[in-house]
Structure formats: structure tokens, C-alpha cells
TrEMBL record:
Class of enzymatic activity (EC top level): ligase
GO-annotated cellular components: cytosol
Catalytic activity: 5-phospho-alpha-D-ribose 1-diphosphate + nicotinate + ATP + H2O = nicotinate beta-D-ribonucleotide + ADP + phosphate + diphosphate
Provenance organism: Butyricicoccus pullicaecorum 1.2
One GO term of the biological process aspect: NAD+ biosynthetic process via the salvage pathway
The protein, known as: Nicotinate phosphoribosyltransferase
Nicotinate phosphoribosyltransferase C-terminal domain residues: 363-472
Length: 480
């Protein structure tokens, strides 16, 4: 759903002081190129999942300054009247490209590129970073968790522990893109069609005189959708037996099979194994067991390795906050400017730390796939106008350890970035979120298992074309 929220003022104060400064110095219209990229995947993972593009598009579409915004800025006493007039009639004029949502992305590649008048291209930094950093973080976490669940259903249960309401709603959306089957978050269903569902709370069970009566009442109202929360008193002595009793006494006469039970405390592996035996013995081998309680990818993997009999997981706090590593460190850096003749002048930011040196120029990222297996071979960053001819062998080489090289043949190559805005006009239709989720799943399948594993994954190659490598090295030489 398109949001009409005006988030124009959600920016860092220095974006305004710089914008006013460029404007005052007559540099505001100088065309500049910025890339958003990140340096490492959270949790030491091998890939991240791009998310948040739809909300970024909404942000750009709604960019404008209200009278109150202008008054507030005037009140700060540090912006020129000419600049405030410019803001009053502000029209977004940038070109924007991004890697589509659901795509596996890797450190160092441009995941969003903005080109336009410096005064504008600089200004949008904060919202680009916060929008993409947040959803990419959660989609990446969801991808890890759902992979650990090995095909079992994972529902996102985190709204109540999310960091604010945007964290809950956009977190639910991102978790769905990353692989969750649904969410408990109702507004995410209403607004983004993320399937919402759930079970029952302990308070429901406590409200009745007995656990049996609580389950019975629920079954009478929702016979087709019964997942009994069995741990309020005692899972094996009371919860599971009461679930079976209600299945026999209330649902069986209606010809309806109960859906399952949920375990939310105690030793989940042990309890699930015992509960499975009891349900099977009672003739309910089709009843599913759901587990919840501060789970994450490590606990999911651990539980399954203990032989836990779990069919689905409800995962909240550690997913919605990406608790183990709650920052996706995407940054936004100037990579080029244009001179008066319209020629692109690449720019670099140097650092003692080789990994922190930026990759200059207006670029494209290409992904190479093996024609035979469909597996991703690596990505190559090129100058924007470079063309890769699939008929010709292509040499991939490591941009720092240049002796590491490989010639690839029989490949298919795809540009990763798509254009979102052309001179301020939106030229991109955001795909429906379930399509994005399927695309994400399919694209992750193109990665080798070595890249997908949790611990010490193989580093995926993000190389440079020879032309780009030369540009970067020439700039590095020049600043020595
Ligand atoms: N078999 C297991 N192996 C590893 N971790 C488990 C196992 N069973 C449960 N856990 C995890 O251990 C953590 C703590 O569970 P613990 O049983 O101590 O607390 P609890 O069940 O929440 O307690 P309470 O009964 O007060 O709700 C949770 O994150 C839970 O998911
Ligand atoms: O542990 P999480 O991964 O965040 O999963 C969500 C948790 O939220 C609920 O507990 P809560 O105690 O808030 O409510 P309840 O009374 O319904 O259990 C639910 O029972 C889960 O334990
Ligand atoms: O539906 C559930 O079981 C649920 C929803 C939110 C949080 N915990 C559990």
C-alpha cells in the first residue's frame, strides 16, 4: 500500500546545513552521485536480503516542505531566505536506482544509487539509510531463521517487543520477504497483505475456571483454527491431555481435526517429543506442534538437532529487533560529481583501513550465473556504461588480491540495479510483496550452500571490472 506519510523532515540537521551551504555557494545544482552500500553482513552471515525499496519509493514520492516546515527552519536562524524559497517550491529531480527487494546482496556493492543536484542528493541520505538498513536487517535475520527451520513454518510474533510501531509494521513486512510465512501483526496484513494469524495467550486459559474449559470455549468458537496453548499449568499432565480431550469431545463430533498445540516454556525439545508421542497415541498424528519462547536461528537449529518434534515456530523479540546484531551498517557515500561539461569525475574516500576505501564512479553491479547450474558465480562492479558480452569469456579478479582470478565462460549476466526515479519521476512499479518473497526464495537458491551457511560462510565475490579497478587505483595514486 502506498503511504502518503510526509517524512521530508526526517533527516539529520547537517543535511540541511550542507544543503543550505551548497545552495549559498552556488554548488546546489552541481550533479552528484551517491551510493548506499554496506561493509559486512550482520551475524557473520554470507549474504543479506535487500528490503525497504517500496517505502523508499513512497518517501521520494512524498518529498515536499510544508509551510510549518519552512517556518520551523526559518526559526532556526541559520538558513538563507533564498534557500527557504527554494524549499518552498521544492521539486525532486534526482535519478534513483536500487537493487530490487528480495535480492541477496553483498558487502561493497551499490544497493542504492542517487544522482542529481547536490543539494537534493545529499539531503535524502538519512531516510535512504534508515529505510533500507532497517528492513534489510530484519529480512536478513528472517532468512537466517527460516533457513534454520528447514522448511517448517515460521510466524513473526514480535510486534509487542519491536522498537516502536514502524519497527513492528515494517519489521513484519521485511520478515515476510525474508521467508516468514506470516505475522501476528494485524496492521501489516491490512496494509501490506502480510498474512496475519495466531493462537491464544495465557490470559485466555487463565480466564476460565479450568484449562479444559478454556480450550473447549475456543474450540466452540473457532473449531477450524484450534491451536491450544498447553503450558499454562503443566504441559504433559494437563495441557496436552486437555487438548486431546477437547479434540475428542468437541471437535470430533463436528468432524473437525484440531490444528495443533503451542509450547511456550520449559525444555521445548523434551516436551515436544513427549507431546508428539501423546498426540500420536491419541490418534492425532496430524496435530501440529508449534514452539515459541525467545527463539532465534541458533535455538531453532539446536532444538532440531535435539530431535525436537516441532512443525512450526512463532518468533518474536529476537527476530523483530535482530537481537544478536541489531544494526545493519549501510552507509551513503559520494562517488562522483559532474563538471560543467557533464563529464563524470569519480570521487574517492580514502582510509587506513583498506575495506573502508570507497569505490568511486557511477557504477552498475552485475551478477554472473552459471548457464548450466543457474548458480551465482559472483558479482562484478563496472562503470555504468560498460557492456558485458555473454558470448565472450570474462575474467573475474579480486580487486585487492588481484592475482586471484578466474575466467568464466557459459554464463548469464544480469544487471542488479533497476531505475526507480528518472529526473524525479517514478518509473518503477513495486511488485506485490508475495512476489518479492518468492523472488527472494528463488534467488537465495542460486547461492552455493557455502555462502548460505551460518558460521564462517565462504565470502561471495564482489569484483571490479578492469576499467573500474583502474579508475580506483588512479585515484588512490593521485592522493598519495
Ligand atoms: N531444549 C532446549 N534446548 C535449548 N534451548 C531451549 C530448549 N528448550 C527451551 N530452550 C530455550 O531456553 C530459553 C529459556 O527457557 P526457560 O525454560 O529457562 O525459560 P522459560 O521456559 O521461559 O521459563 P518460564 O517457565 O518462566 O516461562 C528460551 O529461549 C527457550 O527457547
Ligand atoms: O518470545 P518471543 O520470541 O518474543 O515470542 C513471542 C512471545 O510473546 C508471547 O509471550 P507473552 O508473555 O508476551 O504473552 P502470552 O501471555 O501470550 O504468552 C508468546 O507467548 C511468546 O512467548
Ligand atoms: O498468536 C500467538 O500465539 C502470539 C501472538 C503474538 C505473540 N505471541 C504469540
Amino acid at each position: 500500500m502506498m503511504s502518503n506519510k510526509n517524512l521530508t523532515m526526517l533527516t539529520d540537521f547537517y543535511e540541511f546545513t550542507m544543503a543550505n551551504g551548497y545552495f549559498e555557494k552556488g554548488m546546489g545544482n552541481r550533479r552528484a552521485y551517491f551510493d548506499m552500500f554496506f561493509r559486512r553482513v550482520p551475524d557473520g552471515g554470507g549474504y543479506a536480503v535487500m528490503a525497504g525499496v517500496e517505502q523508499l519509493v513512497d518517501y521520494f514520492k512524498n518529498l515536499h516542505f510544508t509551510e510549518e516546515d519552512i517556518e520551523y527552519l526559518r526559526g532556526r536562524g541559520c538558513f538563507s531566505e533564498a534557500f527557504l524559497d527554494y524549499l518552498k517550491d521544492f521539486k525532486f529531480e534526482c535519478d534513483v536506482w536500487a537493487i530490487p527487494e528480495g535480492t541477496p546482496i553483498f558487502p561493497g556493492e551499490p544497493i542504492v544509487t542517487v544522482a542529481g543536484p547536490m543539494v537534493q542528493a545529499q539531503f535524502v541520505e538519512t531516510m535512504i539509510l534508515l529505510t533500507i538498513n532497517h528492513q534489510t536487517l530484519i529480512a536478513t535475520k528472517a532468512s537466517r531463521i527460516t533457513r534454520a527451520a528447514q522448511g517448517r513454518t515460521v510466524l513473526e510474533f514480535g510486534s509487542r517487543r519491536a522498537q516502536g510501531y514502524d519497527g513492528a509494521v515494517y519489521g513484519a513486512r521485511a520478515a515476510y520477504i525474508g521467508g516468514c510465512q506470516g505475522t501476528a501483526c494485524v496492521i501489516a496484513d491490512r496494509d501490506f497483505r502480510i498474512p496475519a494469524g495466531g493462537t491464544m495467550a495465557h490470559s485466555w486459559v487463565q480466564m476460565f475456571d479450568s484449562e479444559y474449559e478454556a480450550f473447549k470455549a475456543y474450540a466452540e468458537i473457532y473449531p477450524d483454527n484450534c491451536v491450544f496453548l498447553v503450558d499454562t499449568y503443566n504441559v504433559l499432565k494437563s495441557g496436552v491431555p486437555n487438548a486431546i480431550r477437547v479434540a475428542n469431545e468437541v471437535l470430533a463430533p463436528m468432524g473437525i481435526r484440531p490444528k495443533g498445540i503451542r509450547l511456550d516454556s520449559g525444555d521445548i525439545a523434551y516436551l515436544s517429543i513427549k507431546a508428539r508421542e501423546m498426540l500420536d497415541e491419541a490418534g492425532y498424528s496430524d496435530m501440529q506442534i508449534m514452539a515459541s519462547n525467545s527463539l532465534d536461528e541458533y535455538l531453532v537449529r539446536d532444538l532440531l538437532s535435539q530431535g525436537a518434534q516441532i512443525d512450526s515456530f512463532g518468533i518474536g523479540e529476537r527476530l523483530i529487533t535482530s537481537k544478536s546484531e541489531p544494526v545493519f551498517g549501510g552507509v551513503y557515500k559520494l562517488v562522483a560529481v559532474e563538471d560543467e561539461k557533464g563529464e563524470i569525475i569519480p570521487k574517492i574516500k580514502v582510509s587506513e583501513n583498506v575495506e573502508k576505501i570507497t569505490t568511486p564512479h557511477f557504477k552498475q553491479a552485475y551478477r554472473f550465473f552459471d548457464k548450466l547450474t543457474g548458480k551465482a558465480l559472483g558479482d562484478v562492479l563496472t562503470l555504468r556504461d560498460e557492456v558485458i558480452n555473454e558470448e565472450q569469456p570474462y575474467m573475474l579478479f579480486h580487486p585487492i588480491h588481484t592475482w586471484k582470478k578466474k575466467i568464466v565462460t557459459d554464463y548469464v549476466v544480469k544487471p542488479l540495479q533497476v531505475q526507480l526515479f528518472d529526473k524525479g519521476e517514478c518509473v518503477y512499479e513495486c511488485p506485490p510483496v508475495e512476489e518479492v518473497r518468492q523472488y527472494c526464495h528463488d534467488q537465495i537458491e542460486t547461492l552455493w550452500e557455502q555462502t548460505r551457511r551460518f558460521e564462517n560462510p565462504q565470502t561471495y565475490y564482489v569484483d571490479y571490472s578492469t576499467k573500474l579497478w583502474r579508475v580506483k587505483n588512479a585515484l588512490l595514486e593521485a592522493v598519495q
